[in-house]
Design brief:
heterodimer, A: mainly alpha, 5 helices, about 70% helix, B: mainly alpha, Four Helix Bundle (Hemerythrin (Met), subunit A), about 80% helix, globular
């Protein structure tokens, strides 16, 4: 129990870094606001001072292809997550785990080949 | 008993619940997704408190990274500039309140006297290796089923999304 507490206290450093990460930009932006002159006029509020006038909402409807790419990214991300504990514990697991992992990867390779054959990976 | 662990848990739980409430109450979908990210990250912090560091890393990697992106893309595909209309109706609200209260009571009864036996406190020692050993020696079949599930998800998504595209092409040809 002592050891666990000692171990968890290491997360205080993580907490300190988290606080620094939040405070630093806040302080920097606030100081900038204090120091800079404040003289607004209409032209300053446009997105591009010299350029094409922006029109339409920037959040347009996306192409469905982005979604398939995102989904494939998630699926292979999950696969990678399963690879981590396998790689770390590999020396204690031996050849059987290697075969298991090969089956696992093979399953997803089937999915990748299917996606390839269906021309999901092509953009045109 | 005001230990550091308790304070950390309270802060994280508060952030998680506030994120969830904001997720429901905000009107713009992008803001909702940001609130959801706060919930996911604080849940990762709770996993760290429970000495499950690998799960915490996975929570950040998969949920606040990948799942959020996929939800954003999913939102961007649809008509996301709609704002939700307030739903009126007394009976609906009453049933909703009853449902929430019933759920709350059920959960309270369920967890109030729940006795979880104290497990060995060595989870923080080589956390990932422990997960690896138990996953690849005791839980092989669920693990292999996961690969089948992922394959089904991948193929299912392709079938659904590609079909739409082919229809679009045909529509363009006509």
């Amino acid at each position: 129990m002592e050891l666990l507490n000692l171990y968890q206290n290491n997360y205080l450093i993580v907490f300190v870094f988290l606080c620094l990460g939040v405070i630093l930009p806040l302080v920097a932006l606030y100081l900038g606001k204090l120091l800079r002159p404040y003289k607004p006029y209409d032209a300053k509020y446009t997105t591009y001072e010299s350029g094409i006038e922006p029109f339409h909402d920037s959040r347009v409807q996306f192409n469905v292809r982005y979604y398939i790419f995102a989904l494939m990214f998630v699926i292979f991300d999950v696969e990678t997550v399963f690879l981590y504990p396998w790689a770390v514990a590999y020396e204690k697991l031996g050849i059987f785990a290697l075969i298991e992992m090969l089956i696992f990867v093979l399953m997803l390779v089937i999915g990748l080949v299917y996606a390839w054959k269906k021309k999901v990976l092509k953009w045109t | 008993m005001l230990t550091g662990e308790f304070i950390a848990f309270m802060a994280l739980a508060l952030v998680a619940i506030i994120g969830g409430v904001l997720l429901i109450n905000l009107t713009k979908v992008i803001h909702m997704v940001v609130a959801l990210v706060f919930t996911f990250v604080s849940i990762a912090g709770i996993f760290v408190i429970l000495s499950a560091e690998f799960i915490a890393a996975v929570q950040i990697l998969i949920y606040s990274g990948a799942i959020t992106i996929i939800m954003l893309f999913g939102i961007m595909l649809t008509r996301h500039d709609d704002t939700s209309e307030p739903i009126t109706g007394k009976w609906r609200k009453l049933f909703l309140l009853l449902g929430v209260l019933g759920f709350g009571v059920a959960v309270y009864i369920g967890i109030y006297n729940l006795d979880i036996p104290q497990a060995a406190n060595t989870l923080h020692v080589d956390n990932t290796e422990q997960i690896g050993i138990s996953l690849y020696s005791h839980f092989i079949i669920p693990f292999e089923l996961t690969s089948v599930l992922l394959l089904v998800a991948l193929i299912g998504a392709i079938v659904l999304a590609k079909k739409d595209e082919d229809d679009e092409k045909e529509a363009e040809k006509e």
